[in-house]
């Protein structure tokens, strides 16, 4: 049974006023205006391993100096647009129209143009630069252990790693790095909260679901696709930043438990292959009294054989309800 700290009347009025204005559906679906009364992600750095970040008025003051992996001496920016969109979803300031999930968090952009070895170096760099969350809206197209060195490094430094589960049409299963132990793999749902098998893959490794269909930003000439698990993962990374800002003393494992205990259970009761522990719920995660213990299932998730342990205990986990 979770204990919820009641929102103040002012917070509820602010939420109602903001929700009445036209905005992205996912902001209303996740009740972000109410969540922002509790946390805006201040003081949390999010490592963004992606295609870089271009200048955007909604990101003024949000982006820290970045690095390239490998460093090819190319001009700073984002020729593809994918990384910029993820940055907006995570930490957009709302100056010109896009307010991200954690509008006071900071982005550490690692522009990735190489393969898994470069991604490993990028994750380690982000951790060393003070990231408390690392977003990996990318995938290898299959399963590999090549990311494990970086993921272990992040775990050893108390960093939450969030990754896109994989996109339908490109992937057949949850791909690496999302399938690796200790990573929060995120699937995509639409505006009705329904898992979309034409957008997202499913699998026992899925940890959470988040909006990932028709997720546009105010960026002119947006180049990135508007549907996919990349967007869903960015949204969850933003929620992690909110929780880490509100509860700075929680470990990465305890943050994971906080999200799981408060997620909105959808699909089959308990954890399932489409929604994981459920639809991420920022307001509940920020309102519930934290459990400062570390449950056995989190230890299993974060262990070297975490995927195998979870697979063996899948029936037991399905009985657990938030």
Automatic annotation (TrEMBL):
A biological process term (GO) from this entry: proteolysis
Keywords for this protein: Hydrolase, Membrane, Protease, Serine protease, Signal, Transmembrane, Transmembrane helix
Superkingdom classification of source: Bacteria
SUPFAM superfamilies the UniProt entry points to: Subtilisin-like
Domain (Peptidase S8/S53) ranges: 41-278
Coiled-coil intervals: none
Transmembrane segments: 296-317
Signal peptide: 1-21
Keyword Membrane appears in the UniProt entry: yes
Entry keyword annotation includes Coiled coil: no
Protein name: Peptidase S8/S53 subtilisin kexin sedolisin
């Amino acid at each position: 049974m979770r204990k919820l700290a009641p929102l103040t009347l002012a917070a509820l009025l602010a939420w109602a006023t903001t929700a009445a204005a036209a905005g992205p559906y996912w902001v209303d679906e996740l009740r972000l205006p109410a969540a922002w009364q509790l946390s805006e992600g201040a003081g949390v750095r999010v490592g963004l391993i992606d295609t870089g970040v271009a200048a955007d008025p909604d990101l003024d003051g949000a982006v820290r100096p970045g690095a390239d992996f490998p460093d090819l001496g190319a001009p700073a920016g984002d020729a593809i647009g994918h990384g910029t969109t993820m940055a907006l979803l995570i930490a957009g300031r709302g100056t010109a129209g896009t307010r991200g999930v954690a509008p006071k968090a900071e982005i550490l952009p690692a522009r990735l143009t190489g393969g898994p070895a470069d991604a490993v170096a990028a994750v380690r760099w982000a951790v060393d630069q003070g990231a408390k969350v690392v977003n990996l809206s990318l995938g290898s197209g299959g399963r590999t252990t090549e990311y494990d060195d970086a993921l272990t490094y992040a775990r050893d430094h108390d960093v939450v790693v969030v990754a896109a589960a994989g996109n339908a049409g490109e992937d057949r299963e949850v791909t690496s790095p999302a399938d690796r132990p200790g990573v929060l793999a995120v699937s995509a749902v639409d505006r009705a909260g329904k898992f979309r098998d034409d957008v997202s893959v499913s699998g026992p490794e899925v940890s959470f679901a988040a909006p990932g269909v028709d997720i546009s930003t105010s960026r002119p000439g947006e180049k990135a696709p508007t549907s996919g698990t990349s967007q869903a993962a960015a949204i969850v990374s933003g929620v992690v930043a909110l929780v880490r800002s509100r509860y700075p003393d929680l470990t990465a494992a305890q943050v994971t438990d906080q999200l799981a205990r408060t997620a909105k259970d959808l699909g089959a009761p308990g954890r399932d292959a489409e929604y994981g522990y459920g639809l991420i719920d920022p307001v509940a995660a920020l309102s519930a009294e934290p459990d400062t213990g570390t449950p056995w299932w989190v230890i299993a998730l974060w262990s070297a054989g975490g995927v195998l342990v979870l697979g063996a205990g899948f029936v037991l986990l399905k009985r657990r309800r938030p």
